[in-house]
Amino acid sequence: MSTTAIATDLGLKPAATAATASRSVSSVEVTDYDNRQTVGKIVVDNAKMICRGVNVYYGEKQAIKNVSLDIGANEVIAFIGPSGCGKSTFLRCLNRMNDTITTCRVTGQIKLDDDDVYDKSIDVVQLRARVGMVFQKPNPFPKSIYENVAYGPRIHGMVNTKAELDDLVRDSLERAGLIKEVEKRLNEPGTSLSGGQQQRLCIARAIAVHPEVILMDEPCSALDPIATAKIEELIDELRENYTIVIVTHSMQQAARVSQRTAYFHLGDLIEIGETDQIFTNPKHKLTEDYITGRFG
Amino acid sequence: MLSYLLLTLALLSSAAYYLGRNRAFAVANGHIRNLHSLPGFYGSYTALWCGLPALLVLALWVALQPSLITDLVVAGLPPELHDLPADRLNLVVNDIKNLVNGNIVSSAPNPAILEAANHYRNLRVIGNSALWVVIVSLALAGLAYSWNAIAPTLRARNRVEQIVTLFLILSSTLAIFTTVGIVLSVLFESILFFQHVPITEFLFGLQWSPQTALRADQVGSSGAFGAIPLFSGTLLISGIAMLVAVPIGLMSALYLSEYATPRFRAIAKPALEILAGIPTVVYGFFAALTVAPLIRQIGTAMGLQVASESALAAGLVMGVMIIPFVSSLSDDVINAVPQSMRDGSYALGATKSETIKRVLLPAALPGIVGSILLAVSRAIGETMIVVMAAGLSANLTGNPLAAVTTVTVQIVTLLTGDQEFDSPKTLAAFALGLVLFTITLILNIIALRVVRKYREQYE
């Protein structure tokens, strides 16, 4: 098959392929578009989460195909890829948020430290306390700022006295970089904050239950550039204490905040590696097309 | 006669619409972009000018013409009729009108009345012809004026939209004015009642026995109008009904919206709503023939005194009747809470029940309170079940096993049957209605306050 024919199959403009062909320097190792074997090193030494052969089905449709990767402790790993590639679906497998979708079925193995996430003996409530999540659209509860942060500790019985709770709430807000802005208005509704503040409130809410891993599903896509910059700064600080998995549509963001990057394409994990390497020297043709803006 | 005039007006208006539109095309020189508004708006503008003023005058005319003619006829009556007392004169005028309309007359008409009838007929013919002339010329004048006013710069759309806004305002205030009208009519009758019975006795009296004496020497019909037993009965039965309906309704709403599979929900929800479609009379049968004897049997077996018609039977059945109001509406509002709220809570490791108690219910509170309020007003207003299952005896008691009666039931019994409309017995119904209305109004206000204070807005 000629490259032009393949490109047309993939819905690409032949001109784009021509441009690629004319590039004098290309270090890509895998040039076959149909090769969906994961390229790059999936294993890390200090793995916090280990995923092996994960498949996800929505009814008959397979959304994730045999994905294996490690998530290292105290690293920020970014999932990138075109819309509908399954990166959010995979993210939601990590704390079993997919359980709420009745038609969703997950096979394969996901381990958090030594515990199998999908094992019957695992309580999903405990799991989610260990693997927190921040969503695309800020979704503070319709309660006061204080109550939003206090929600998690309360339901998990993490504190015994009001003073302890106060401390925990303040600490979480401080770590989320929000305390200065909301110190005087803890009793105002969380929804009265701006979009960026709301998202940081959601991060504070997640931190308050002392998770080990924080999943972020496009946390900045509803925010303006300044709020985005603040969140990115925050992610960098949070790395000290937490492992962070972030799904993002912005490649610049992935490059800025993450140490490792995984590129998903139509349910396959195409390439994974150090962020620098992925963005400067991708090994798979699909990855290169995506990061150079020719695709997706 | 009037319908022909209205038809003519409608035809004229539609003609005006086309004339106006064509005129707009003409002044635009074929380029619609030259016009301020779309041609249709010029058409509507012309049609409104043609129809509206004429319609307003028509309404005014039709409202005033009969009384004007009557006044003229009465003024023309011979003195011996003209000087009759007001109610007798009224009778004469009625006779004249009956003659004119060809109805049966109360007595053989005398010449003076016949002549007056003729006079009436003449005046009416003149009036109607004048009406035609005035209305049609007014419509044509409006048409001519607006047709002439059409120019590319005329802001026809804005004018038409102003009129439409006016209609919208009128429609929205109609309900308010109706309410005010109802309140006033009940209020005036109630004032009449309070002239017979002191308001304090009505509001605080503990005896309800609305039989007034027909003859001076009648025994045992002194009449007592203390409304407390009725309101306590209403409170008791509604309270029992709410005790049944609110928990069951809420829990079924929670199950349907959060736990049930879509298939179960698709079957159960309509089935539950069928409950709301059963006529209350049927519930009444059920309460009186099935539930009341059952309660009586159980009560007797436990050594309790149970009346054959008890507040408990009526309240239980009424509660079942109200369940769908609570469950269906609550289910809708709980479903309306965004999925992102649930996700946020689950992602923090909250269980389903924690999510429901701490996130969903607070967020859905205004809607839930609204549904409960609707249920309360249904319970207070319900009549049929109570008539059949709880009896008519106005006992002042808090015992759910005794027979009680409610305000609405008493209103019905007071107003059915033959009686004068100025006896305290009949007027008491209006006073009861007024107090009932006031109570539900206060309840609504309190509930609104509560909702505003505790609601958690999620958008």
Helical stretch count of chain B?
16
Low-confidence spans of chain B: pLDDT under 50, at least 5 residues? none
- Helix-strand sequence of chain B: HHHHHHHEEHHHHHHHHH
Query: Which range does the strand content of chain B fall in?
Result: under 5%
As for the number of domains of chain A, it is 1
Q: How many distinct domains of chain B?
A: 2
Q: How does the major sheet of chain B shape up? A: 2 strands, antiparallel
Contiguous helical run count of chain A: 12
The CATH topology annotation of the largest domain in chain B reads as: MetI-like fold
Question: Structural class from helices and strands of chain B?
Answer: mainly alpha
Q: Can you give a write-up of this model?
A:
The complex is a heterodimer of chains A (296) and B (459). Chain A is α/β, with parallel strands linked by helices and 296 residues long. Chain A has a single domain (36-291), classed as Rossmann fold. Chain A contains twelve helices and ten strands. In chain A, a hairpin with a 2-residue loop joins strand 1 and strand 2 (61-72). In chain A, helix 8 packs parallel to helix 9. Chain B folds into two domains: 2-154, no CATH class; 224-454, MetI-like fold. Chain B has helices at residues 2-27, 39-75, 79-82, 86-101, 111-149, 156-196, 199-204, 228-259, 262-277, 280-301, 311-336, 339-347, 352-381, 384-389, 407-415, 424-454; strands at residues 208-209, 224-225. Chain B has a two-stranded antiparallel ribbon with strand order 1-2.
In brief, what are we looking at here?
The complex is a heterodimer of chains A (296) and B (459). Chain A has 296 residues and is of the alpha/beta class.
